[in-house]
Amino acid sequence: MNRPASRLPAIVEQHQKEVLTEWLNNQMSSGNWRAGRLQESQLRDESQRFLALFTKAVQEGLEFDARSPQWADVREFLSELSRSRATQGFTPSQVATFVFSLKQAIFRRVAESLKSEPAALASTLWDATLVLDALGLYTTELFQQAREQLIARQQEELIELSTPVVQLWEGVLALPLIGTLDSERTQVVMESLLERLVATGSSIAVIDITGVPTVDTLVAQHLLKTVAAAQLMGADCIISGIRPQIAQTIVHLGIDLSAVATKASLADAFALALKRRGLTVGRAAPLGD
Amino acid sequence: MERIPILKLENVLLVSIQVDMHDQLALALQDDLTQKIVATRCRAVLIDISALEMVDSFMGRMLGNIASMSRILDAQTVVVGMRPAVAITLVELGLALPGIRTALSVDAGLALLREVLERPDESADVE
């Protein structure tokens, strides 16, 4: 397709100030920016920077390319924007509107400048639509990525948080498990338990599953793996906190837990652990008056 | 040829594996250890693998073999100092080393061996 050079870059550059004012007004009146805790001055600053970068980039061509150095500054700005919007809790459409709302302001300038040339007007509008749509979609994509990263990080933190290994007594560790056990979590649980076993020189570990909502064959298999790994290192495991329903489920599923000592409550397991260590707990002699 | 030293400490044979095991070395160790058990009439073997960073199924089987051979010669085996990563690998490989006693450290292993040897019926109760 061969057509005369687009007039868009020149128009945007010439009317940058008016475009910015109108764009800001549009954004303010739409109320989008108020959704997060965005300051008006921040929005103004962001809009101004984006428009400056955009104006600079379009001077060299209108094709948006996610890899070309021409758009590097714009891309960097947009990724920063998406990240900050993602953490502030904006919705995808609110973020995309940031770019799309620029259209109206630019279209009006273009229409005014090319009033007498319908053909040039149409092609210029088309150019503006293409490049702004590409930028808007790119922003949404970045926003999505930023959200996904956020979720992944929170998931990791959740896993770390929910697998504390505590020392009950000298040589006795406890691992209170809360939440569903999947393969990934079992790996983290296993590693942290085994590392603590070495670090504290403990020979007994109590795995408490009071907080595990369901036990199926997979969870049982994960538990038994942990027990086997601890045994390989020379530590014994006791599984405690088995609720009545779970005991029934385990038997119905035909899971063999006979290789492991099991107790109904953490207290029972602790008593057994102390016994194995050759310790007893007794009532102190009553204090004489 | 490279060999793994076997030390006699009181009535315990102490084997500390400090290098990467390969097949030849493992077979030589089995050979040496069985001969040494017979020669010294020791009834306890302690294998320290705390320096071992990697294991494969061959290594797992070899440990199992050594334990079985020792048992036939009336000696008890304890494997000590297995690293967490190694333990996880063995479990994932499905090699839970049945019939092998384990302990966290050399100290704990010696205590366990003493306890087992002093028991009147020491052949029973191998988990």
Question: Which key features would you list for this structure?
Answer:
heterodimer, A: 289 residues, Globin-like, Transcription Regulator spoIIAA, 2 domains, five-stranded mixed beta sheet, 10 helices, 9% strand, B: 127 residues, alpha/beta, 4 helices
List the helices and strands and how they pair.
The complex is a heterodimer of chains A (289) and B (127).
Chain A: H1 8-14, H2 16-30, H3 40-58, H4 72-88, H5 92-113, H6 118-161, E1 166-169, E2 172-178, H7 183-200, E3 204-211, H8 217-232, E4 236-240, H9 244-253, E5 261-262, H10 266-276
Parallel strand pairs in A: 2-3, 3-4, 4-5
Antiparallel strand pairs in A: 1-2
Helix pairs in contact in A: 2-3, 2-5, 3-4, 4-6, 5-6, 7-8
Chain B: E1 6-9, E2 12-16, H1 23-40, E3 44-48, H2 57-72, E4 76-80, H3 84-92, E5 101-103, H4 106-118
Parallel strand pairs in B: 2-3, 3-4, 4-5
Antiparallel strand pairs in B: 1-2
Helix pairs in contact in B: 1-2
Describe the fold and architecture.
The complex is a heterodimer of chains A (289) and B (127). Chain A is α/β, with parallel strands linked by helices. Chain A folds into 2 domains: 151 residues, Globin-like (Orthogonal Bundle); 111 residues, STAS domain (Transcription Regulator spoIIAA), CATH 3.30.750. Chain A contains 10 helices and 5 strands. The termini of chain A are far apart. Chain B is of the alpha/beta class and 127 residues long. Chain B contains 4 helices and 5 strands, in the order E-E-H-E-H-E-H-E-H. The N and C termini of chain B lie far apart (36 Å). Chain B is globular and about 35 Å long. At the A-B interface, helix 7 and helix 8 of A face helix 3, strand 5 and helix 4 of B.
Task: Briefly summarize what is shown.
The complex is a heterodimer of chains A (289) and B (127). Chain A is of the alpha/beta class and 289 residues long.
Strand content of chain B: 15-25%
Helix tally of chain B? 4
Please give the order of strands in the largest beta sheet of chain A. 1-2-3-4-5
Q: Total strand count of chain A, please?
A: 5
If interface size is counted as residues with C-beta under 8 Å from the partner's C-beta, which chains form the largest one?
A-B, 20 and 22 residues
The tally of domains of chain A stands at: 2
Return the CATH architecture of the largest domain in chain A. Answer: Orthogonal Bundle
The separation of the N and C termini of chain B measures 36 Å
**Uncertain ranges of chain A:** none
